[in-house]
Amino acid sequence: MTTTALPSYEDAIARYEPVIGLETHVELGTNTKMFCACPTEFGAEPNTQVCPVCLGLPGALPVANRAAIEATIRIGLALNCDIAPWCRMARKNYFYPDMPKNFQTSQYDEPLCVDGYVDVLVDGETVRIEIERVHLEEDTGKTLHVGGATGRIHGATESLVDYNRAGIPLVEIVTKPVPGIGARAPEVAKAYVTELRDIIRSLDVSDVRMEQGSMRCDVNTSLNLPGEEWGTRTETKNVNSLRSVERAVRSEIIRQASLLNEGTRIFQETRHFQETTGDTRPGRSKETATDYRYFPEPDLVPIAPDTAWVAELKAGLPEMPSVKRARLAEEWGISTVDMQSVANAGAIELIEQTIAAGATPAGARKWWMGELARRANETGVELAAVGATPAQVAQLQGLVDEGKLNDKLARQVLEAVVAGEGDPAAVIEARGLGVVSDTGALTAAVDEAIAANPDIAAKIRDGKVAAAGALVGAVMKTTRGQADAKTVRELILERLS
Amino acid sequence: MTDVTRMTAAQVAGLISKGDASAVEVATAHLDRIAAVDERVHAFLHVDREGALAAARAVDEQRARGEELGPLAGVPVAVKDVIATRGIPTTAASKILEGWKPPYDATIVQRLRAAGTVMLGKTNMDEFAMGSSTEYSAYGPTNNPWDLGRIPGGSGGGSAASLAAYEAPLAIGTDTGGSIRQPGAVTGTVGAKPTYGGTSRYGLIAFSSSLDTPGPCARTVEDAALLHAVIAGHDPRDSTSIPQPVPDVVAAARRGAGGDLTGVKLGLVKEFAGEGAEPGVLAAFHESVEALVKLGAEVVEISCPHFEYALPAYYLIAPSEASSNLARFDGVRYGLRVGDDGNRSLEEVMSLTREAGFGPEVKRRIILGTYALSSGYYDAYYGQAQKVRTLITRDFTSAFERVDVLISPTTPFVAFPFGSRTSDPYQMYLADLYTIPTNLYGGPAISVPCGLSEGLPVGFQVMAPTMADDRMYRVAAALESAVGTLTPPSLEARA
Ligand SMILES: [Zn+2]
User: EC (chain A) (predicted)?
Assistant: First the structure.
């Protein structure tokens, strides 16, 4: 294989037009599995959340979980889909050891929800992503290959299967192809998945955590020359974070452009995203040849949600994230773009809760988007997990507003809060960090500063009031920053007038 | 005391409830009978002597405590080996499940236990219920007690033969294309296929999910109805189970036994009453029709033009579903595993396991079904078969606008000698020609003995509308009252 230098992203996009499509799987947060009463909690001992049904034992039969059907319909409604008045589950037949029945109960040509859309904001501009279908299926178990160097099936000496995940309800959301987005394709892909995640989170039907696999994304990418037909698409799997969605599209555009530049054809194939290198690698090529022999699942009666129920579910949908963002931007007095950064930082709920705990919108936003966002970024954790609660941030800002903390002290207190030393008030108490504005306590420090700086004191006496700043600085130093600067200044001027 | 193995289930239940016999005595008599004759009949794949005696003791203790007993308390029952029984081998007569002991009971087994019946063991069948002769059992065929050189029907030949051999008064079968009724016909016993969804499939190892129906087998219509009443009814664990009350089949059977069919309209299926059936079968059938007329029934000839397509439609739908249902037998989780030597790939081990574990008829149907579902062929085969199914259903519903039940012979021919139909699958498939339409429609049907042809039993089939199972019991019981039950020649005499 020859290794030619890859084109730059800019070169690739200057020559070719990308078309993307996304298939997203969301594990529903129902208490029980799709077709049995087994619990769905994440992280249990292998093969402890199983029964004859989800193990596919001979004779066992599925019964559909109504909560899962309801959650799927709500997702469909939130994505502006039509809900099928009658549809069936289908069997997708293929042999794989993590599938207990060697078929997956899914949906084929009769999905529960069809023809929706999601609007996403990229660089201040709205892009409409059309949704082809939302359907319900069951998850598979997990296979662990032991003894090989790669952790993959080839070379492994043993394969262990955990069926705890088998039968957990899974919703698949498939977009129509998204053309015409040019260089923004990677950002559009990321913005879509982010929006989808926020919508589903607002419905409270899944914890949508990509790192735990409760939300998984497959990204389809193709390139074509301007004015020509769409190219052959590849499907990239194993895309496990929002950032990876963006990287996967970008790297696939570059890879395909490189091949097309050489005159090589693109093959329809499944590829795997590599988190470490940021590029995609080919998957098993024979997957493309699989004939799944779909047919309607005879063990389940058709799903026929009645219109009154669907209307009731529609009426009960929560405020959608985009509507909520617009409302909050208005309430907080910030621009759409600033609101987008708040959303991107995952700070909306945190700021809302901080405001609810008594802070002003500006005060709440300042901490979450400033100091705390920086720390979260540095330590690589989500903002919500940074170590401070909205109540603590509200308390901190309250102390600043009351003049009990200045900005510098407040940062120190926040540092201690994040380090787990307790609420701001407790930290101030324990560390003695509060602002000293008691004139009695400050007078000595002021006198000391005047005595130590006779030249400056003389200037002030001569009416050069601006020189007072230097003395204030000296007092702050001796009081380790705890003095209230305004009080100190007043005291100095009073003494030297 | 008369031999309890010769009694009906109703009589045995009466003895036990009155205290004239203990459940243990009854169980022991049947277990002894099995020990005496099953070597020649081979109705059972597994006899659970200890489990049966324990269940019988529990009934006796219940009675001793003065507790109320169920209608079939202490009555022995044999269960087809395709139904999951907790801790008791369940193989579907396949090598691929040899030694498998389910960790759970099928819903109907739970109901049998709750009713106080005493399960004697698991009966032989064609592998995965695919066949009409039990010759496809991986553990050897069952022999027809009427003539040990002939087939007992299939797939539930073991259940039917256990009744004809007086090894059990009741048995459970499953009917996908006739597997309860055709064995009933050729062994001179009663076999009823309830309405699809009227009896739970939970725990029945699936052959064809949209057709499989568990049901009762007995030596009398009343006994079949008593067993039907115990096992039927809605099961929340089976999505296709019908959430409606079960018709009172026992009352219907007792009413029919009174011998009055005044006002009952019978539709004689024209397509199934002429050529195609053996002359002796037709003769017995038509004599029985005359007998029913004498009881006051009105008979009209009904044409069901799409019934002739039932067999080909069935041989697309059933294998298609089977090809998917049987995919789980791969050696990974339970049952047989072949070739796992540490060097072979998973795919090879799965292949070798299935190659060694499945018999020829099962493989034939998996291949048929896989082909019928393949992309490019789906519409022409599976899709087309579903359309035929709709047309057959229409034949039934329009017939039931004119008549109360449909009647026909159960099967075109009496018990045939072993090996006479195994070389040509189509000749074997013809055994279910008259029973398959009902399965495609989903209604209930019963086979009741109606006489002999060349010394071998002939079955009479009564088909009813869905959830009108009571109608077929009434007509079948009336016929039974007119022509009587059949008694096979003594096995002892042929020892
Ligand atoms: Zn389960």
Answer: 6.3.5.-
CA distances from A409 to A355, A438, B43 (A): 21, 17, 89
Residue of chain A minimizing CA distance to B383:
A295
What is the sign, positive or negative, of the torsion defined by CA atoms of A326, A330, A332, A333? positive
Q: How many CB atoms lie within 10 A of CB B475?
A: 28
Catalytic-residue membership of B80? yes
Question: How close, in Å, is residue B242 to chain A by CA atoms?
Answer: 11
Contact A61 B90 (CB under 8 A): no
Distance between Cα A68 and ligand 1 center (Å): 15
Residues of A with CB below 8 A from B240's CB? 298-301
In a domain, B368, yes or no: no
- Give A55→chain B minimum CA distance, Å: 9
Tokens describing residue A417: 């809060």
Task: Evaluate whether residue B184 is within a structural domain.
Answer: yes
List all residues 6 or more positions away from B424 whose beta carbon is below 8 Å from its beta carbon.
none
Give the tokens for residue A98. Answer: 């993590």
Q: Is residue B449 part of a domain?
A: yes
In a domain, B358, yes or no: no
Report pLDDT for B59: 98
Q: What is the pLDDT of residues B354-367, one digit of tens each?
A: 999 999 999 999 99
Nearest to B330 among A62, A95, A293 (CB): A95
Q: Inter-chain contact A100–B103, Cβ cutoff 8 Å?
A: no
Nearby residues of A465 by Cβ (< 8 Å), 6 or more positions away: A493
Ligand 1 centroid from CA B345, angstroms: 28
- Asked whether the predicted pLDDT for residue A287 surpasses 80, the reply is no
Q: Which residues of chain B have a CB within 8 Å of the CB of A102?
A: 327-328, 330
Sheet of A295-296, strand order = A103-106, A90-93, A295-296
**pLDDT for position A432:** 78
Q: What is the pLDDT of residue A331?
A: 94
Residue A157, pLDDT score: 73
pLDDT, tens only, B11-44 = 999 999 999 999 999 999 999 999 999 999 999 9
Has residue B114 got a pLDDT over 60? yes
- Whether B179 is a known active-site residue: answer yes
* pLDDT level of residue B450 (50, 70, 90 thresholds): very high
Residue type at B214?
P
Task: Identify whether B324 is a catalytic site residue.
Answer: no
Are A163 and B333 in contact, with CB atoms under 8 Å apart?
no
Domain range for B172:
4-305+395-494
B216 CA from centroid of ligand 1 (Å): 30
Structural contact between residues A229 and A266, judged by C-beta atoms closer than 8 angstroms: no
Instruction: Give me the residue label for tokens 């959608």.
Output: A320
Interface contact B203-A97, CB threshold 8 A:
no
Which residue is it, tokens 């279908």? A133
Question: Which has more confidence, A421 or B283?
Answer: B283
B312 vs B331: CA distance, rounded Å: 32
Q: How far is CA B180 from CA A157, B252, B336, in A?
A: 47, 20, 28
The pTM assigned to this predicted structure is 0.89
Select from B178, B191, B179 the least CA-distant residue to B272.
Answer: B178
Q: What's the pLDDT band for A1 if we cut at 50, 70, 90?
A: very low
The DSSP bridge partners found for residue B121 are B47, B78
- State yes or no: pLDDT of A463 exceeds 60: yes
Examine the pLDDT at A456 and tell me if it is beyond 90.
Answer: no
The pLDDT score that the predictor gives to residue B281 is 97
Domain containing B116 — which CATH number? 3.90.1300.10
Domain count, chain B: 1
CA B330 to each of CA A95, B96, B355, B391, B437: distance values in angstroms, whole numbers, following the listed order: 9, 9, 10, 37, 32
pLDDT at residue A72 is higher than 80: yes
C-alpha B103 – ligand 1 centre gap (Å): 13
Cis peptide before B159 (omega within 30 of 0): no
B445 closest CA partner among B60, B176, B157: B176
Residue A284 has pLDDT above 70, yes or no: no
